Amino acid sequence: MARAGGTDRSVNVTDGKLAGPLVVLSAPIVASQLLQVAYNLADTYWVGRLGEDAVAALSYSWAIVFLMVSVGGGLTVAGTVLVSQNKGAGDFQRSHHVAGQTLSFVTLIAAGFAIVGYVATPWLLALIGAAPGSAPHTLATQYTRVIFVGVLFMFWFFIFDALSRGWGDTRTPLYLMAVSAAVNVVIDPFLILGFADNPIFAWIGMEALGDGLYAATGFEGYGVTGAAVATVIARGLAAVAGLYLLFSGRVGLQPRLEDLWLKRKTVRKIFDIGAPIATEQGFRSLGIALLTAIIAIAGDQAVAAYGIVNRLSSLMFLPALGLARGTETVVGQNIGAKQFDRAKRAVYISSGLIIGVFAVVLAIAIPYAESIVAFFIETTGEQSAVIEIGAAYILIAGPAYVFLGVFQVMLGGFRGAGSTRLAMIFSLQELWLFRLPIAYAALTWFALGITGVWYAVAISFVASAITTAIWFFRGTWMNRVVDGPETTGSNEDRTAGETATDTTGGS
């Protein structure tokens, strides 16, 4: 399959049993996303030692960073779809070519984001509610600009992850993420807090070492900015390693240098598939920024609490995200092979799995809501309002994550089929049709306070899952977006595929 000898770790999802390979494919994605959350949780924990202003700064900054990452990351999903469907169709050389084209195209987009984002950061932060001149605005500006400086590293790893996932290899990105997360966790406390009175030294009983290092260097840490520096360094290591593995052919895929020279036809295909996802993610991240601005009406304490629970919700969301991305690959490869019933069955299996997993996660999280939130912020005396607000989110919105999980799995099926416009529509309705209007009305019109926003989140998850399921059961979302060698399949499968393609129109 690869052009050079290497270790192909891809999982076969087009033959034999489906549940086992789906879990094998999705589990490393879940683990990789868990490590991704480790980045955010480590940042939140150590920045939390600096106080509420610092935590609020991370919350404001993340709204901007998420916008950038989401738009570019949406384009990488086109690489997943095209690589997976070409592989399923048996056209391995085309998979290699698409990999190179995706890398070049998204790199250009990332470079543009880096320049524009660095310049516009102060204005963007003010736009979402961070008062210019305030401590959260100043700290968030410093943090966000460092992230923009290192944005290429972040995107290169996302590209490698997406391409490997389309090929069916989810383990190699996991290994790289593990190394990257470990580096971030290790250097985070020192770059944020410096050496003086750093609790790390107290934990290991080596306070004298910390005092000695501080006396020798005078290093007091970079504060909130240190978290961004740690992230860039850790991402850089993973990105460089990923690109080396990609071009060496050690993961199965191996684009040539000539594959990096952009071809209009291929770029058009990447754009046609990726643009709806990028639009979806861009509008979602813009919506998250707007939600942050709405929450800011309730004050900086509410924003700080939202920053904490947002990272905690990422942890709760991991199984759904992993299964959704695994479902993308399984659906893509099986539709490429014209096995449409098998592709649909993958969505059913993933939905059942996510319901079971979330039931367990919620049973653990809900009883300890306040303790979980309190872990991430320093408090003195009585519990702060930040803890109470954050715990209320877990209690109110937590149960609705079961619906969010099924919703995300169905969207993964749509994307794997190439029906990215359809996925965009349903994804945006959750945020823009349900969550934002209800949140604003609850907070301002009905004076329900921040808990009204949490109820809006829960309602949006349930409503969007129901509307998406109605469309899913219509069965018109399957779309074969590649032309490859004819593969075996029943007449029923072929008819289903032709019907799906005609009726979706690539939506």
Fold and architecture overview:
It is a single chain. It contains 18 helices and no strands. It is mainly alpha-helical and 507 residues long. The protein has one domain. Helix 2 packs parallel to helix 4. It is globular and about 60 Å long.
What is the number of beta strands?
Answer: 0
What number is the mean pLDDT?
Answer: 82
Radius of gyration: 23 Å
| Whole-number tally of structural domains | 1
**% residues in beta strands:** under 5%
The percent range for helix content is over 70%
Runs with pLDDT <50, length 5+? 1-5, 484-507
Number of helices: 18
Q: Characterize the overall form.
A: globular
What order do the SSEs take from the amino end to the carboxyl end, as H and E? HHHHHHHHHHHHHHHHHH
Keywords:
507 residues; mainly alpha; 18 helices; 78% helix; 0% strand; globular; disordered N terminus; disordered C terminus
Quickly describe the structure.
The chain is an all-alpha fold. It contains 18 helices and no strands.
What's the topology here?
Layout: H1 19-48, H2 52-88, H3 92-127, H4 135-149, H5 151-167, H6 171-193, H7 199-203, H8 207-217, H9 224-248, H10 264-296, H11 300-336, H12 340-365, H13 369-374, H14 385-397, H15 401-416, H16 420-445, H17 450-472, H18 491-504
